[in-house]
Design brief:
The complex is a heterodimer of chains A (226) and B (74).
Chain A (H helix, E strand, L loop, with lengths): L13 H7 L3 E5 L3 H13 L3 E5 L24 H12 L4 E5 L8 H5 L4 E4 L4 H13 L4 E7 L2 E7 L5 H5 L9 H4 L4 H19 L8 E6 L4 E6 L1
Parallel strand pairs in A: 1-2, 1-4, 2-3, 4-5
Antiparallel strand pairs in A: 5-6, 6-7, 7-8
Chain B lengths: L1 E6 L10 E5 L6 H8 L8 E4 L2 E2 L11 E5 L6
Parallel strand pairs in B: 1-5
Antiparallel strand pairs in B: 1-2, 3-4, 3-5
The chains are: A alpha/beta (226), B mainly beta (74).
Chain lengths: 226, 74
């Protein structure tokens, strides 16, 4: 499909587009953020995507999780992602892992990727992801959502942003009370993907050592240098 | 001394976005939390003049303290 990427070719050169086909991205979590991340990475033509999630789709996911629909309730989110991408962009190889990232499997799962996308729903596993990303020298894009609010930052090995900035207050956040709507996951995931493209092509300015705080209730978007 | 306090996300509810807070002698972020009735567990990120701060860090006149609740969903 020669024309598939033609609309990308004014912002990324042909060479840059082609280089994405050789890249391997890991998406940890296939829920609200993960569904949008996987969809966008596949449409960009990232050659290999590993999608991991231990959950199955539930009815309460339908309000926001892009890959969920009334027909796949009860099915593995990771396996649904793989099937979906086969129809969106069969040029992309998706490795689906129906399981949870933990201390015992993190190194094996993370190794060999060019970039990691955080689509997790808890800080404990995010810190684990950052630890192994650092160990294996892989950049990682952090994204988190809660109701009207979101956060994005890009973490390179050695930055240890999450360890230094988080006060260790809690594993979960205000999303426990607020829930998440349809638009915050899409917004935060889109910004994460723009960071992935810049990491992989060397273009632009990253959110490295900078923390983007998103507030769609007041429409405030602020970047803090950290 | 005067401290500028900036609140984010749900911490604004009933407290507003930003305020100048006056302390007579010493001040710490914890003293701000106490005055605004913010439980420590509701503070995930604390920035003092844009840098990572500690709850018991002494503040100076003119400092800006930014307080964020935990955001952890995906």
């Amino acid at each position: 499909m020669e024309k598939r990427y033609i609309r990308n070719e004014n912002m990324l050169s042909r060479e840059e587009n082609l280089s994405l086909h050789e890249k391997k991205a890991l998406v940890v979590g296939c829920g609200g953020l993960g569904g949008h991340l996987i969809e966008q990475l596949a449409r960009l033509g990232i050659g290999h995507i590993t999608a991991i999630d231990g959950d199955v789709f539930e009815e309460s996911n339908l309000n926001r999780q892009l890959l969920s629909n009334v027909e796949n309730i009860g099915q593995s989110k990771a396996l649904v992602a793989k099937d979906h991408i086969a129809r969106v962009n069969p040029e992309v190889k998706v490795t689906a892992i129906h399981g949870i990232l933990d201390e015992t499997n993190a190194e094996e799962i993370i190794r060999g990727h060019d970039v990691i996308c955080d689509a997790l729903d808890n800080m404990t596993t995010r810190l684990l992801l950052q630890k192994f990303a650092e160990k294996l020298n892989i950049p990682m894009v952090y994204g988190a959502i809660a109701g009207w609010y979101g956060q994005v930052t890009t973490i390179f090995p050695g930055d240890n942003i999450l360890g230094s900035i988080y006060q260790g207050a809690s594993n979960k956040g205000i999303e426990q009370e607020m829930g998440n709507p349809s638009f915050t996951p899409a917004l935060v995931a889109s910004i994460e993907v723009s960071e992935v493209v810049k990491i992989l092509t060397g273009k632009g300015q990253l959110l490295r050592n900078r923390f983007l705080m998103i507030n769609t209730l007041d429409q405030e978007y602020e970047v803090f240098d950290i | 001394m005067k401290i500028k306090v900036r609140l984010f996300a749900t911490l604004r509810e009933g407290r507003g976005k930003e305020q100048m807070m006056e302390f007579t002698d010493t001040a710490t972020p914890q003293a701000i939390f106490d005055r605004l009735d913010i439980p420590s567990a509701d503070v995930a990120i604390l920035l003092i003049n844009g840098f990572d701060g500690k709850f018991d860090q002494p503040l100076k006149d003119g400092d800006t303290v930014s307080i964020f609740p935990p955001v952890g969903g995906g």
